[in-house]
Structures are given as structure tokens and as C-alpha cells.
Design goal:
Neuraminidase, mainly beta, five-stranded mixed β-sheet, about 280 residues, globular
Length: about 280
């Protein structure tokens, strides 16, 4: 097992989520800064748009347009000529704030949600994974998930893997032609680790950000850990492979408390590490 280290690329954000590598830039949601940014390879940031109800998961439709999970109002939105347009309302299926998502090659989006009001201390509840089809229709394709979070699509579009943060595991499903999910199984049991954002490499490994244990890990189907990156004193929030050769791992970290979120304290950063296996393009 290899142990890697990060270098800080840029900081000064509140709380970053949903990293995506697209068109030579890293796209990120500053969830509690209410802003989507692009970040250049040198760390220069540019505002893409403001999202008043807090942005999280990001994705790109086949036509290249940006889709954004709007958390608090539980909607999927599209950026059109600088304005946010509703694609789908998930409030009838999402029992907590919507969170991360992954999109397939057809432009369908799988969106997770908290399941309950995490920040208010509400009793934990299981959640559904919601499919938003290309016509904006929605349906639950999996339920009983313990805080579904980051997700990837692998095996040529045949398999979806989602992080169950408080289930301490990565869970896999087969994807049907209509986008439905079946054959639920454990991809990797994570032990003490709490998987948040995840990303896929070309050799089938999944990089996992473990929020509570402050580490990024690369795991294989079955749970073998091949690489680790510890970030002591910071939370490991999400990660994404990118860069010119796809071998730069962008690590989103947070060095603050829940109370700091409401004060908009700048405690979020992007760190990078060079890795062996290149990006597979999901999420």
C-alpha cells in the first residue's frame, strides 16, 4: 500500500463539494458560499454562478450544459444563459436536502439526499436515490440508503457505485436499460471510514474521501485499500481526478466546525496529489 501527500493548490472557500474535471478546469460547488467556481491548473478561480439554495453535485449534459443540484429546495437546475432553470423537482422523493449526483452518458442524473435534517439534529432516517430522466421526470431507483453521497458509473455504464456515508460502505447496483437499479451489493466495506465524495480511475479503483477519519483512500472491488492520503486536522470531503494526464487527484478539504459554516468562515481548500492511475471520467 502506498502513502501519498498533498500540496495545497488554493484556499479561501467556505465548504467545497462536487468536484468535476471538465474542459481543462476543475468545477466545484462552494456549498456554504452559495457559489459554483471553476479552478485552473494554477489555482485561479472564476465564478460560474450563484446558487441561493446551496449548490452540491455538478454534472454536464450531452450538449455540454451545466447541471447543478440545488440542495435546500431539492431541485436539479440547469445553467442557461447565466440563469438557473429548473430541470426537476425532487422534493416529493427526497426526505432531506439533496446532495451529490452522478450523470450517465445519456444525460440521466442519479441524485442522493441526506434523508433527514442533519444539521438540526433530527433522528437519522434512510434515504432514496432518485433518477432524473432526460425529460425531467423523476423516480426513486433505490431506497434504504444510509446517507447516499458521492457516486460513480463504471463497467461501461453497467454499474453504479454510491457512497453510504453513515453506512460506512460503497454500495454497487446493476443499471438497467431504463436507468433502474438492481442487484444491490457491497462494493467495499469501509470499516471506520465515512465515505463522502468519490471518483473512479481507469483501472477500476475508486478514490474515497472519508470525512470523519480525515483520509483519502483508493479502494478496489472487494474492499482492498491500495493507496492512502492522510490530511490530519482537516476533513476529507470529496475528490476528483483530472489534469492534463488525468493523474492529478484534487482533494477537497475542510478545516472548520459546523458552527463555522453558518458564519461563512473560509475553511475550505483544494489540495492535490499525483497518483498512478488516470481518471475514468466519472463523476
Amino acid at each position: 500500500m502506498s502513502t501519498l501527500q498533498t500540496t495545497r493548490l488554493v484556499d479561501g472557500f467556505v465548504f467545497l463539494e462536487g468536484p468535476r474535471w471538465h474542459q481543462g478546469k476543475l468545477w466545484v460547488s462552494d456549498m456554504w458560499g452559495y457559489t459554483v467556481y471553476t479552478i485552473s491548473a494554477t489555482g485561479a478561480r472564476e465564478v460560474v454562478c450563484k446558487v441561493p439554495e446551496r449548490p452540491s453535485g455538478l454534472g454536464f449534459a450531452p450538449d455540454g450544459s451545466l447541471l447543478i443540484v440545488s440542495m435546500e429546495d431539492r431541485q436539479l437546475k440547469k445553467l442557461v444563459n447565466g440563469s438557473l432553470v429548473k430541470v426537476a423537482d425532487l422534493s416529493g422523493l427526497a426526505t432531506g436536502d439533496c446532495n451529490d449526483m452522478v450523470m450517465d452518458a445519456r444525460g440521466r442524473a442519479y441524485v442522493g439526499n441526506f434523508g433527514y435534517n442533519l444539521l438540526s439534529g433530527e433522528e437519522a432516517k434512510m434515504a432514496k436515490l432518485v433518477l432524473v430522466d432526460t425529460d425531467g421526470s423523476t423516480r426513486a431507483v433505490a431506497d434504504g440508503l444510509n446517507f447516499p453521497n458521492g457516486a460513480v458509473i463504471m463497467n461501461g455504464g453497467r454499474t453504479l457505485v454510491v457512497a453510504e456515508t453513515f453506512g460506512n460502505c460503497l454500495t454497487a447496483f446493476d443499471i438497467a436499460a431504463d436507468g433502474g437499479l438492481s442487484n444491490r451489493r457491497v462494493f467495499a466495506a469501509m470499516g471506520e471510514h465515512t465515505p463522502d465524495g468519490i471518483c473512479l480511475d481507469v483501472d477500476g479503483g475508486i478514490w474515497v474521501a472519508s470525512f470523519m477519519t480525515s483520509v483519502f483512500l483508493r479502494v478496489k472491488d472487494g474492499g482492498e485499500v491500495t493507496d492512502t492520503i492522510e490530511v490530519p486536522g482537516r476533513r476529507a470531503v470529496a475528490c476528483q481526478l483530472g489534469g492534463d494526464d488525468g493523474k492529478t487527484l484534487f482533494c477537497l478539504t475542510y478545516e472548520g466546525t459546523i458552527e463555522d459554516l453558518h458564519q461563512a468562515k473560509a475553511a475550505g481548500a483544494i489540495e492535490t496529489a499525483r497518483v498512478q492511475h488516470a481518471a475514468a471520467g466519472s463523476p
